[in-house]
Each structure stands twice: as C-alpha cells, then as structure tokens.
C-alpha cells in the first residue's frame, strides 16, 4: 500500500488500512488509549537541592524496577520466559551504571531536575536509534522510551491506566508490550496503533497471545472514537469502523472458523501439502518465543524454518554470554519440537545496539543498520560469539535434525570463514572426545541486496537460501519496517523486491540449491500465490499464520500462480501489485478459501486432530 487510507464503501462503514502485525480477526468496541507523557519540570534546581534530587532518582529507579516485576506477573504462564526476555532488557537499562552516572552528572553539574536529566540522557540514546533504518534498532528505541516513561512516572509516583471495558479493541497512537499485557487482563480482543511495525515487542507479544494487531495505520486512526464498533483484521491489515451488519456477520464467521485456541497450535492434516495441480510445497514455522515450541509440538510437524536465537538467549540473560551447555539444551529442545522436519537455527543476529546505551566498546556506528551487525559482528568477535554457538549446534545436531542459518551475509568470503571456523570447532570436539555431528547444513539469509544480486556465486558454498524479506525490503526501498513514518512504504510486494527474489530462485534452480522465504510476507494472503508463482517452494511463517497459508496453498493452481507472478512483475509499484493480486484471488479463490471460512479438518475426512 502507498499510504494508510480511509475508504468509505457506504453508510457509516469506513475502512482504515495499515500493516497486519498479528493475524486474526476481532469484533468489538473501540477503546481509545491516550498515553500522555509524564510532565517534567525543566527549570534549574538550587545547589543545595542536588542531593535531594539524586535521592529522588535512586528511589525512582527502585520503583521502576518494582513496576517491571509487577508487569512480568501479568504474562500467562506459557509466555513467562519470553516476556522475561523483553522486560529483562529494560531492567538491564535501568541498572546500566554508565547511563545512571550520566544522569547523575547532569543533576550535579547542570543543576537539572532528575526528570529533565532522564529525558536528556535517554532521549539522546533513543534518537540515535530512531534515526536508523533497522527495525531491531527501532525495537531498542522503543525499550528506551518505555524505560524513560517508567522513570518519569516513578519520579512523579504516578501509574499507567489500564482499565478498559469488556470485549474491547484498543486504539492508540502507539502501544507497547506492557500495554498489551495490562489490557489483556481486561478481556482485550485486539488492538490497532497508528505507529509501530511488525518487528516490535508489542507485535511479538500480540502474536504469542493470539491477539489480532494492526500497526502503521497512520493519521486516519485519530478519527476512531471510544465506543464505536470496530473490526480489527490483523491478517489483511485493516480496521473496519462502524461496520454494516453484513460485514460483522462475515467477519464473525471468519473469526470463528480460522482462530485456533491458544495452545492448540496448527491443525494436523494427514495429507501432503500441494497445490490443486499437484505441485508440492513445504511449510515451516518462524519461532521467536519459547512458548511457541510447545504449540509447534501439537501441530502437523511443519518444522522450524527460522529460530531467532537472540530472542531465546535473551530469556537466559545477556545473549552474548549464555554458556555453551545452555545453548546445547535449547537447540536440542528446538530439534525435538520440530521433529523429523527439522529446525533451522539462525546464528545470533545482534548489532551495535546490543552494547547497550552508555557502553564504550569502541566508536559506535552512527547508523548500525548499515554497519556492524549480524554476521559482521560474529566474525569480528569469533571467540566470544561465533565459536560457542557453532560448538553448541554441532553437539545438538547429533540428537536431532538441525540446519544453521547465517544472518546479514554480504559476500562469499564471510561464508568461507564461517565454514572454516565450523570445521575447526568440529576438529576440537573430536579431539576432546565430545559427541557431535559435523553434518550440519549451512544456509544464508538473503536480506542484503548484494547477496541477492550475487546469488549464483553463493550456490557452491551453501546448502540453501532463506530470503528474509523484512530486511531485504527495507534495504531495497530505504523504508524502515519499524518506523511509523515509513512503515507504509515498506512492502515486500514491490516489483523491485520480487525481482530480487526471482533472481535468487533462478540461481537456486540452476544449481539445485533450495530457496525458501521466511519474512512476514510469506504469511500475507495476497503474497502467497505470487511467491509460489515465482518458484518459491518453501515458506516459513509465524505459527498463527500456518493454517491460513496452508489453506491458500491447497486452493491455488501452480500454473495459474506462475501467470500471476509474470503479470505482477510488470507492475509499477507495490500498490499495483496488491491490486492485481487481490483481483486474481477474487477470481481464482472463493471467499471461504481466502478467509478460511471452512475448517480444513471438516472438509478433509482423512485429517485428524
């Protein structure tokens, strides 16, 4: 889509478009959440007030830490470890002595009140992250903002309001993971925000909770008032305001038939996954939360197409310092949950942001998204980061089916170096008499345009490609997927992005190197037929998206999808691609197939639960 828009199909019904961050449908009453920032006094303090202001700061830090502990208790048991990872990052910021010292210094030397000093110090760090085009860095900026707000509230001894009516859909300028957890205690059905992106902590928590979530809806969302009836569609990325009765009935049916209960996982089908004309397709799950492994076990054995290790390891502390033994156990658990389909483990995808604010670890990048992150950091710090993780994967590989995936690859020399380190660690394990399996397939994330353009050069070095459309799109279009301003321009269905995906697919086909897509676009209803038509035979999507994508695949003809792909590659922009894809779907698929309005098990007598 080009810009968030409000379309009026008739009567009082209007549609606000954005980006779906967590799939599903919810019909409820809008509750407008106005998160006002705590007021700060900006005047100077007297010299004899400095000590008292330092005491206020110390007490506020303590109260903010206590509030974090309270929020953690709001998470369901199944999400405890995962929310711990999110809020532990904020707790580490609160305890960061470099940051606290910088705040104290401004109080002592500039005679600033504690609130002003907090805003100045944390605001400076946050602005540097917000200017980046990296969605992960944007997530770090969100954490800093939430820490700042906690401290300011603690200085004023105020609390956040979290009382909403039953059966509500929260509408806000922006929402945090904390907001969703608090509102969840009051029967929250779904949420929509003007800002934010699908990579935010709020989106991660929403997906894990099974809450339909719309982000990047823009200024149009300001017109939604509390009390209005709304439908949030987190799958197709739209909010329907004051819907007609027929629209409500359509969405209620869709919601009832497509939303599996929390913990159920995906349905078991008992039959191979293929298009209507017999073309086989592999479907796997993206996993970023430990609770999702339990849900994966109860599904049809899709396997894991992407396990984000930096999120899992943060649940155990600093991801840079998790002991090898704990990593081995994590990868064994993932392999067990994935079963015979296997688990693809992405190496730590860290960046300059992971030093933490205030830490002096060499000159930080002005814009780390273009610099020191992903595989570059791993290769620059092999003994601390790369070798322990590869050793753990080699050891766990003997007890399950694992593959290793390299993040942020730019050139073939990087892959050669990783293979060299892997061979060295395998030899060391052999010398030490440690059981392991050196047959560990190695793939690369294609998320830098250079890797896509040079795909043929990588085919002799890698066992598979995994196209990360989230980052690839933001690099190709210069549009940050986590920014409220440019989220609307971040669309992987842009012809330029699709052209690069096709280039990788063709390189893989020529060499026999499998190609899969693991970005958010793989779960987009309009994108699935296009990706199949481009020749992508493996898709990896979030767990909640698995049933819907499986239904689409079973309803699509492969030859027809190829014709669609040829057509959309000639389009001018992403908006045109989406119009053509939507029209194609309307022609080739029934509404029940696109909405998933019939339960797959009910249609297939051979399927089992």
Question: Helices, strands, pairings?
Answer:
Layout: E1 6-10, E2 13-17, E3 19-22, E4 25-33, H1 50-72, H2 80-95, H3 97-109, H4 114-130, H5 135-156, E5 168-172, H6 177-184, E6 188-193, H7 201-209, E7 213-215, E8 229-233, E9 238-241, H8 245-258, E10 282-287, H9 291-297, E11 304-308, H10 309-314, H11 324-338, E12 343-346, H12 375-380, H13 382-396, E13 402-406, H14 412-431, E14 442-446, H15 449-453, H16 455-458, E15 464-467, H17 469-477, H18 495-511, E16 515-517, H19 527-534, E17 538-542, H20 546-555, H21 558-568, H22 574-588, H23 591-595, H24 600-603
Parallel strand pairs: 4-5, 5-6, 6-7, 10-11, 10-17, 11-12, 12-13, 13-14, 14-15, 15-16, 16-17
Antiparallel strand pairs: 1-2, 2-9, 3-7, 4-8, 8-9
Helix pairs in contact: 1-2, 1-5, 2-5, 3-4, 4-5, 6-7, 9-11, 11-13, 13-14, 19-21
Description:
This protein is an alpha/beta fold and 609 residues long. The protein folds into three domains: 6-35 and 161-258, Glucose Oxidase, domain 1 (3-Layer(bba) Sandwich); 47-156, Enzyme I, Chain A, domain 2 (Orthogonal Bundle); 282-351 and 371-603, TIM Barrel, CATH 3.20.20. The protein contains 24 helices and 17 strands. The strands form two sheets. Strands 1-2-9-8-4-5-6-7-3 form a nine-stranded mixed β-sheet. It has an eight-stranded parallel β-barrel with strand order 10-11-12-13-14-15-16-17, surrounded by four helices. β6 (188-193), α7 and β7 form a beta-alpha-beta unit. α1 (50-72) runs antiparallel to α2 (80-95), α9 runs parallel beside α11 (324-338) and α13 (382-396) packs across α14.
């Amino acid at each position: 889509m080009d810009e968030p828009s409000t379309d009026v199909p008739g009567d009082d019904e209007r549609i606000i478009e954005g980006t779906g961050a967590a799939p599903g449908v919810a019909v409820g009453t809008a509750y407008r959440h106005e998160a006002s920032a705590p007021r700060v006094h900006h005047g100077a303090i007297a010299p004899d007030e400095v000590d008292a202001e330092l005491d206020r700061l110390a007490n506020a830090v303590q109260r903010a830490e206590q509030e974090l502990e309270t929020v953690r208790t709001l998470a369901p048991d199944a999400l405890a470890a995962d929310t711990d990872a999110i809020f532990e990052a904020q707790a580490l910021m609160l305890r960061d002595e470099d940051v606290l010292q910088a705040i104290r210094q401004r109080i002592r030397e500039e005679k600033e009140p504690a609130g002003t000093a907090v805003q100045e110090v944390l605001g400076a760090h946050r602005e540097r992250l917000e200017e980046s085009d990296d969605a992960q860095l944007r997530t770090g900026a969100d954490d800093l903002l939430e820490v700042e707000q906690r401290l300011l509230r603690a200085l004023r001894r105020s609390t956040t309001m979290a009382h909403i009516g039953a059966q509500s859909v929260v509408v806000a300028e922006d929402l945090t993971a904390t907001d969703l957890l608090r509102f969840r205690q009051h029967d929250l059905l779904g949420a929509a925000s003007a800002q934010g992106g699908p990579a935010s902590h709020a989106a991660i928590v929403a997906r894990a909770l099974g809450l339909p979530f719309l982000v990047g809806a823009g200024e149009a969302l300001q017109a939604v008032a509390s009390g209005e009836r709304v439908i949030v569609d987190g799958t197709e990325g739209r909010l329907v305001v004051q819907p007609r009765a027929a629209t409500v009935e359509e969405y209620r049916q869709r919601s009832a038939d497509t939303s599996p209960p929390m913990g159920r996982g995906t349905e078991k089908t008992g039959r191979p996954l293929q298009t209507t004309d017999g073309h086989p397709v592999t479907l796997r799950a993206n996993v970023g939360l430990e609770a999702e492994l339990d849900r994966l076990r109860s599904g049809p054995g899709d396997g894991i197409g992407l396990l984000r290790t930096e999120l899992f390891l943060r649940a155990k502390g600093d991801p840079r310092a998790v002991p090898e033994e704990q990593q081995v156990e994590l990868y064994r658990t993932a392999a067990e949950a994935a079963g015979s389909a296997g688990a693809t483990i992405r190496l730590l995808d860290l960046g300059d942001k992971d030093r933490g604010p205030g830490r002096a670890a060499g000159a930080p990048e002005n814009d780390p998204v273009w610099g020191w992150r992903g595989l570059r950091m791993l290769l620059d710090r092999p003994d601390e980061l790369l070798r322990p993780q590869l050793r753990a994967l080699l050891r766990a590989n003997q007890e399950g089916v694992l593959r290793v995936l390299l993040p942020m690859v730019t050139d073939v020399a990087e892959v050669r170096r990783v293979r060299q380190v892997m061979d060295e660690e395998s030899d060391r394990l052999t010398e030490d008499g440690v059981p392991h399996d050196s047959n560990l397939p190695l793939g690369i994330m294609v998320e830098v345009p250079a890797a896509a353009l040079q795909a043929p050069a990588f085919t002799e070095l890698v066992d598979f490609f995994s196209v990360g459309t989230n980052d690839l799109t933001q690099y190709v279009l210069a549009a940050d997927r986590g920014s409220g301003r440019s989220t609307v321009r971040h669309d992987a269905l842009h012809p330029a992005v699709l052209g690069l995906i096709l280039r990788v697919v063709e390189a893989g086909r020529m060499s026999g190197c499998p190609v899969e897509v693991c970005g958010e676009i793989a779960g987009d209803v309009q994108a699935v037929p296009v990706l199949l038509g481009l020749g992508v035979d493996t898709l990896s999507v979030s767990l909640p998206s698995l049933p819907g994508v499986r239904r689409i695949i079973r309803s699509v003809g492969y030859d027809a999808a190829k014709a669609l792909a040829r057509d959309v590659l000639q389009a001018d922009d992403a908006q045109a691609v989406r119009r053509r894809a939507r029209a194609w779907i309307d022609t080739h698929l029934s509404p029940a197939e696109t909405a998933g309005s019939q339960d797959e098990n009910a249609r297939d007598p051979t399927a089992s639960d």
